Hints:
This protein is an alpha+beta fold. It is 25% helix and 26% strand. Helix 4 packs across helix 9 (312-326), helix 6 packs antiparallel against helix 7 (220-228) and helix 9 crosses helix 10.
Amino acid sequence: MNKDLRSFLAEIEPLGPGFFARVEREVDFNYEPCVIQQKLAALGRYPALRFDKVRGSMIPLVTNLFGNYEMLGLALGIAPGEPKRRILETFRERVANPLPTTAVARAGAPVKEVIQTGADVDLGRLPILKHAELNGGKYFTIGFLIVRDPQTGVLNAGVYRHEIKGRDSFACMFNPAHNAGYIYRRYQELRRPMEAVLVLGHHPAVVMGSLARGPIESDELEIMGGLLGESLEVCPAETVDLPVPAWAEIAIEGILDPARQTSDGPFSEYTGFYGPVKDPVGLMQVRAITMRRDAIYHDLDPSHREHNLSGVLSFEASVFDNVRKLTPSVQAVYMPASGSCVFTAYVQIKKRVPGEGKSAGLAAIAAEPNLKIAIVVDDDIDIYDEEQVLWAIATHCEADRDMTIIPNAMGAHLNPSAYGEIRHNHGPMNTKIVIDATRPVTLDFAPRIRPPKELWERIQLKDYITGG
Length: 468
């Protein structure tokens, strides 16, 4: 059997309230789970949350599986307390070594324990949330959609926003530049319906695989296996010619007919602002819902830091690999929640050549269209500590020498400050900034104050402070 959502929950629950919390009191699907999650975040707490009772549904709900960076590490088998840079190193290594899927029979697949088709299909039985007051409706937010490229036959999986449109239909809003957007347009050109399966609930490493950034020819189901550390087991769908992860909690099968489209939004986006109505977008007509007998529904609060962290390792890996081509001395890349995990990157290099800092920053900006700000620091700066990064900017650089501004660059269309070719219109362009906060390598620079190494290593707080 594969590791799955429930095996991950069983792993993190013993780690205590920093990683897992259970809500036994009934909550309303309108906002309440999100508000609880946000109130915890205001206290600096980001545990996974299990809600046993959501009004109107018999199915429990889990959320905030990507609430903190350490949780990403746990999904990859890295224990809290290990160096954070190991998380990205492990992610990059596993993505580079995908594993072919393993086919299993329907009879042995837990996701087939309950099968609903025809008049039995009713999305209203699921604990689908309305996440924010101005949202157009209730949304699937972290299910990954599996489709097949009609030209190559390669499978594709990705996470998109899906607004519920009825008992048996929901919207599919594809980013035009994402692989599924290209695949959907190919079906439109062929005037053929696109088969799809939306998967809700699996091990977080599997979900992270669906968020991997790669060419359209890459098969995310194989990347899921690489990240999981074992081949992803799949079984045939009931009503479409696609595989379904056998150890998923819920799978929703259906058809997107390009001749029948709908609208989507507004939606509470990862930027912290509402995204506008999108029209037209795809409409999925549901043919079947299959699930475990005791299924768990996986949700994500889209305007919470969890939304950004869920895919951050894919962004960091893309930036790291591109920087390394130009600056082999790159040590680590971190895209913090303070920058919505896509707009800001901290790049750590072991600088040995004049100009390496700026080159690393330019390479980072070029790697990822969403990225607006690249800050490059020396290898003695902990990029996971924003106080150290800001200290490096304040003490290492001067704006007229060390800051580079690049206007009119392709950027993030959902960023509310983005602009178009006519500057006062909204569009898909941003002004990029590179800040070189590294020290010069050929000039004298003030020595950094450090405690005596022997004393630092010898003194243990528990020997001096009660509870330390």
